[in-house]
Structure formats: structure tokens, C-alpha cells
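--- STAGE predict ---
source: upstream dedup step, 1 unique chain passed
mode: sequence only
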Amino acid sequence: MLKKTNSRIFPTAKVLGMGNALVDIMVQLENDSILKNFSLPKGSMQLVDNNFIIKISDNTSGLKKQQSSGGSAANTIHGLANLGIKTGFLGKVGNDDFGKFFSNDLENNNIKPSLLIGKSETGRAKGLVSPDFERTFATFLGAAIELNANDLSLEIFKEYDYLHIEGYLVQNHELLKKAVLLAKKNNLIISLDLASYNVVEENLEFLKSVISEYVDIVFANEEEAKAFTGKEPKDALNEIAKICEIAIVKIGENGSLIKHKNKIYEIGILNAKCIDTTGAGDLYAAGFLYGLINNFSIEKCGKIGSVLSGKVIEVIGSKMKKDIWVETMEMINNI
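--- STAGE serialize ---
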């Protein structure tokens, strides 16, 4: 159980996600010439301005694409909602069609929108998927990064039992600190996905302070864990577990490592045909939190996370169709 919330586990818990509200536009490239033309290093994530997004949209207008509400925390919340968990999402969008699309996409998936309106246009992430399925992102954050501490109130958190935060918000220290303070005043369990190794490196001391004082569950991949501790996965896991209740380090094709109450669990991967790794970590978090909410064993929580991450890499983008969710739930029930 989780000490920082008086060991409460909620069979009917509600989860609030907080993160960058982005519209994901996944484009299937015929070749990598677009990447070269726009000086986008293959496999990278580059922050760009709105004009860049417009230009690259014009140059990929004839290619197959799909659009969905995105951002790391939003992906996790979508996963939880599809598993039947009551959820909400807190973020900021623009007063435009993309903002309306983001809000409608949340509502259509039974997610309560807590969306504020910013001055900029709604953020977009243009995901360029190469023929070998490598992803390259050009991201315009737009109104998403206008979310600030003054936007938060105690009332927002009152109806929830868990708060899941994406690590990209860590750069705004005032925002993150106020969010975790208000969440703890309402006795929420807090999970944090470290999201990016460079964000970890740039905010290391602040992160360590916030995690040790407020965060119950930490999700990290191998690179993020190394940036946080300077150590390889298992040693990094042990270090992270010293300052939170549950530490998870995802190690790609080698599965994941979880530590809780001095016990380490090694979780394997689902045998899947990978075509796009977008959302794999986010859906792992959704599966793990789903298991925790249902009071399953830590090992089973990890296995559910592995199932979700394995299923989402078999599709383009971070969203799975209803028939895949039905299949996924059957797999979960058989664990």
C-alpha cells in the first residue's frame, strides 16, 4: 500500500491526468526525404514554431495520416478510460478547431475535460513515421505550455483519488509544486512519468526534492533512470525506490523492473509485431495504474502494463480501436 496517502487503495478510484494538451497528427511517410528537407534528425523530437508545423503540413498533405488527442499524460488517461476507469484531464488549449477537437475526443472517450483556454493556438505534435516505423516528431507546444500555477485550485482535485503527471511539466517548477501540494491536500496518490532524459538532467535537484516529498509512483525508461541516478537499470531502480513507494524502470525489449517494499519484480514483454512505438510507455503506465486501482499484485500490475504497451506498438499512433481493446481486456483477464 502507499504510505503517503494513508494506505488507501480505491476499487472505484478516479484518475486525473495533467500534462501538455497536444493534438497528435501521425503521418505515414513514403520515404525519409521530408526529414532531410526539413532538417529533422530521424527518431528525434524537435520543438518547432507554428509556421514550421504549417509548412510541414503543406508538404505532407497527400500522405495517409490520423489525428487524435495526445500528449503523454493524455495517452495514459485514454488508456485508463478504455479500461473502464473514471478519468479526467487537466491542460490548456487554444480557442480554435484543434482545441475543440481535443475536448471532443476526451468527451467521446468518457474523459472529463478540465481544459483552460490559452492565448496561443492549440499545441500539435506532427509524428512522421518512416517506412521502417521509426518516429520523428516536430512539436509545437502552443497553448499547452501556458498552463501555470495560477490556473490550479483545490477544487480541481477534489473528485479524484489519483493524479498522474507527465514529466514534461517538470520544467515549470511553480506549476508542478502547486499541483502536488493541492493533490496531497486532497489525499491523492501521485504518479509521475519522467518523460524525457534531458528534462530530468536539467531539473534533477528539483525532481529529487518533489519526488521524495510528494510522489508515490515513478515511471522511467532506461535513459531517464540513468539521467536521474547515473546508474544502470537495476541499480537505478534501487536508487529511485529509496525516495518513492513504487519505482518502475522500463527497459524496452527486456521488459521492465519494479521495486516495492524491498522486493524487485522482473516483468517480460508481450510478443508483439512492432510497427510504431508511440505511446508504449504511456500505455504501460495506464495498465500498471489500472492494476493498482483494482488492488492486484504488483507483479500483475506490471504484466498488465506490458500487455498494453505490447498492443499499442502494433498500431500507428497511441490510440487503439475498440476491437483491440476488447482483445486486450481478454488478455488482462487471463493473466
